[in-house]
Amino acid sequence: PLIVVATVQVAVFDEGDRLVWANAAHQAAFGAVASPPVAFADVLRRNFAENRGVRIDCGDVEQFLREVLPRRRVVAQRAFATDLVTGECVWIHETVLADGWLVSIGTDITPLKRLETDLRLAHDEALSASRTDALTGLSNRRWILELAESQAQTARARGASSRRSPLRRRR
Question: Is this prediction's pTM over 0.70?
Answer without folding.
Answer: no
